[in-house]
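Design a sequence for this backbone.
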């Protein structure tokens, strides 16, 4: 009987602890605001229009007292220009989430923007700056849009810009530019080559991430980073693997500087600046079928092999 009572007490204490953790997280991240953060607002998105023009030029981490924040800066305007001061909202949309943040500072002078749109100087400036708590950003990618509310109503526009998490940090990616590059075809000198490389038994765990995997009619473009656990990335040899029915194709990559990977893994003390890669693989001559995407790394006598859960369909 005493044993059962102790178990019940322990369970009650565990429940109380979990409730405390949840409530503290909710209170300090959502209910309690800092003076610099842009808070969320709750209203339905208006119909999409093309009258709001904007660009996001800067994204970086910023501390909001006890919170981790994301600084976002750029410019935004509505055509025609409102007669009265407007309210501006940032919209971030993922597959299952829509977040709307009110922009606190949307009156920063931007003469370059006025010149570009051939606008006369107005009372209202076009630049904006804001910091949003990272607590809200649980997804890896958000489509960016803006709402401007003036005396005539709310106006919502989107563009090809995407807020995307890469190596643990958010950056802005232009999806239209990515697609244009893929469809127009790269410089032949930048194409990856299929190699005959024997794949050795792995001796180290491979750490990696595919930031982007884009397939057009002619090429497969893969960008990301990778390294062998516990080893610097200097003199690392990196390969892309395409595996189908037990047959594995090996392609070389172009090394890319990734100082952000070193910074993100700073606790390891490793120099991972050269861990980045880009591979542009011609797919016109590949057999039709589904290829599993993987990576192979070698450094001296050490090696690592890893296959992802990504499959590339060729000849669809």
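Sequence:
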């Amino acid at each position: 009987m005493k044993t059962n009572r102790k178990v019940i007490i322990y369970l009650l204490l565990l429940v109380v602890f979990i409730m405390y953790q949840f409530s503290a997280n909710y209170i300090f991240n959502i209910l309690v605001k800092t003076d610099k953060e842009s808070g969320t607002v709750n209203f339905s998105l208006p119909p999409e229009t093309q009258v709001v023009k904007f660009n996001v030029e800067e994204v970086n981490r910023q501390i909001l007292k006890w919170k981790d924040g994301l600084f976002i800066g750029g410019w935004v305007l509505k055509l025609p220009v409102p007669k009265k001061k407007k309210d501006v909202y940032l919209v971030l949309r993922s597959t299952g989430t829509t977040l709307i943040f009110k922009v606190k500072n949307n009156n920063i002078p931007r003469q370059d923007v006025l010149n570009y749109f051939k606008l006369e100087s107005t009372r209202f400036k076009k630049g904006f700056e804001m910091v949003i708590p990272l607590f809200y950003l649980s997804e890896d990618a958000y489509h960016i849009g803006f709402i401007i509310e003036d005396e005539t109503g709310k106006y919502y526009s989107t563009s090809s810009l995407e807020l995307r998490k890469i190596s643990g940090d958010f950056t802005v990616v232009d999806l239209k530019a990515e697609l244009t590059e893929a469809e127009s075809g790269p410089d032949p000198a930048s194409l990856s080559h299929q190699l005959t490389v024997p794949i050795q038994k792995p001796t180290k765990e491979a750490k990696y991430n595919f930031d982007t995997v884009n397939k057009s009619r002619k090429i497969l473009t893969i960008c990301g980073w990778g390294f062998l656990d516990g080893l610097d990335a200097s003199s690392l040899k990196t390969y892309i693997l395409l595996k189908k029915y037990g047959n594995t194709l090996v392609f070389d990559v172009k090394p890319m500087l990734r100082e952000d990977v070193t910074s993100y893994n700073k606790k390891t003390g490793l120099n991972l600046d050269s861990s980045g890669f880009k591979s542009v693989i011609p797919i016109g001559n590949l057999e039709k079928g589904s290829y599993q995407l993987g990576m192979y790394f070698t450094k001296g006598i050490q090696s690592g092999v890893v296959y992802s859960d990504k499959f590339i369909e060729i000849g669809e």
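The chain has a mean pLDDT of 83.
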